[in-house]
């Protein structure tokens, strides 16, 4: 019996893959990426210059705001899209090594442009005269160190640093612990109310507390809350922010910053407290420890890292405090601080050299704190 034979299929040409094809560069992607990035940067630069020289072209503030959001977000997205295309077009080994640096590079560029360059420029100007046209050596530093107002500002800053961070952290811990004892609904309501001042700017908070400290002449109705209470208790109305005795006016200004920062402290510390393992707390209770002992010997040691982070963050904020003092007293009545002194030297007295010298002193004071915070963060990461 014979079987029919089917027609043989035509032989197919075997495809030989080039093993090195994926390792080589893609010139098309590289070219498109470069052209795209250059185009985006060129377009954004021209838009920025047009806004600077011809702001009338952009209409009202609402249009400017919308344009800033659309162009800013869209421009950044396109820039990274073309950057990614450029990196993908490189040979694989080079591409894989360059990806992290490529995406960090724009951020580093803007950090250098907005922070590092102004820092070195400020140091440079601190050795120049009032209009930064000629160098005067250390004269600006000699002038500010001989100025009594500078030393008063230093003393006030030290007072702020001794009081505000400690109280903010203490109140934050207390509120976090007490709120944790409430029901879920009560905890959310309490934390929301305490955190609410964080949504207010320093200027807005100063205006609000200006009403609290408001003064009317004796015999008139006291609209300020503090004077209304004081008069109700039988006292005479006081000009609270103009009392130089015992630095009470500075302490009253500190109350504003404490009110603003306790919410920030509470949120971080509350999260840390909730992260304390229940096993350690239960073990302490079984061993007969009281709630106070549990708090100080079990909870506090385990949230020490968060306490230090909050303390240093508030410490740096206090060191740079400006808005509250400027809005309320502008440094009068013995309330001046370094940042407000700098502002007045630069804009009121037109002494750019002395102003930048004050900034350099402030920068030197901040650097050890930043170094400590970074070191503490690294130590925490290493211990995990």
Number of individual domains: 2
Order of helices and strands: HHHHHHHHHHHHHHH
Assign a percent range to the helix content: over 70%
Mean pLDDT: 86
As a percent range, the share of strand residues is under 5%
How many strand units?
0
Shape: globular
CATH fold group of the largest domain: MetI-like fold
- Coarse structural class: mainly alpha
Low-pLDDT ranges = 1-9, 12-18
Q: How many strands, which pairing sense, and closed or not: the largest β-sheet?
A: none
CATH superfamily of the largest domain: MetI-like
Radius of gyration: 31 Å
CATH architecture of the largest domain: Orthogonal Bundle
Overall description:
The chain is mainly α and 384 residues long. It has helices spanning 27-53, 61-88, 92-125, 139-145, 148-180, 184-195, 202-212, 225-232, 248-274, 278-286, 291-302, 304-319, 323-328, 338-348, 352-383. The protein has 2 domains: 23-125; 140-383, MetI-like (MetI-like fold, Orthogonal Bundle), CATH 1.10.3720. Helices cover 71% and strands 0% of the residues. The longest helix is centred in the N-terminal third of the chain and has 34 residues, at 92-125. The radius of gyration is 31 Å and the shape is globular. The model is unreliable at 1-9 and 12-18 (pLDDT under 50).
């Amino acid at each position: 019996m014979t079987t029919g034979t089917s027609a043989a299929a035509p032989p197919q040409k075997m495809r030989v893959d080039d093993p090195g094809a994926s390792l080589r560069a893609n010139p098309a992607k590289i070219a498109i990426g470069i052209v795209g990035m250059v185009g985006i940067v060129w377009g954004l630069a021209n838009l920025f210059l047009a806004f600077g020289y011809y702001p009338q072209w952009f209409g009202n503030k609402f249009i400017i705001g919308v344009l800033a959001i659309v162009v800013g977000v869209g421009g950044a997205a396109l820039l990274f899209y073309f950057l990614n295309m450029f990196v993908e077009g490189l040979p694989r080994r080079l591409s894989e090594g360059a990806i992290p640096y490529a995406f960090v590079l724009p951020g580093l560029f803007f950090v250098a442009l907005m922070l590092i360059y102004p820092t070195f420029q400020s140091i440079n100007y601190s050795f120049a005269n009032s209009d930064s046209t000629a160098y005067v050596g250390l004269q600006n530093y000699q002038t500010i160190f001989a100025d009594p107002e500078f030393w008063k500002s230093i003393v006030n800053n030290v007072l702020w640093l001794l009081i505000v961070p400690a109280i903010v952290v203490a109140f934050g811990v207390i509120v976090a612990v007490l709120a944790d004892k409430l029901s879920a609904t009560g905890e959310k309501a309490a934390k929301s109310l305490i955190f609410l001042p964080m949504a207010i700017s320093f200027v807005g908070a100063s205006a609000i507390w200006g009403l609290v400290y408001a003064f009317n002449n004796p015999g008139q109705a006291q609209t300020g809350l503090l004077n209304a209470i004081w008069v109700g208790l039988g006292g005479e109305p006081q000009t609270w922010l103009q009392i130089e005795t015992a630095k009470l006016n500075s302490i009253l200004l500190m109350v504003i910053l404490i009110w603003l920062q306790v919410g920030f402290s509470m949120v971080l510390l509350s999260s840390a407290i909730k992260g304390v393992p229940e096993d350690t707390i239960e073990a302490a209770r079984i061993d007969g420890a009281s709630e106070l002992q549990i708090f100080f010997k079990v909870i506090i040691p385990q949230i020490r890292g968060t306490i230090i982070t909050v303390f240093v963050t508030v410490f740096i904020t206090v060191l740079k405090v400006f808005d509250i003092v400027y809005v309320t007293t502008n440094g009068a009545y013995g309330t001046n601080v370094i940042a407000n002194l700098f502002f007045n030297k630069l804009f009121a007295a037109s002494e750019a050299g002395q102003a930048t010298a004050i900034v350099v002193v402030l920068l030197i004071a901040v650097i050890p704190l930043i170094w400590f915070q970074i070191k503490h963060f690294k130590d925490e990461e290493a211990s995990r």
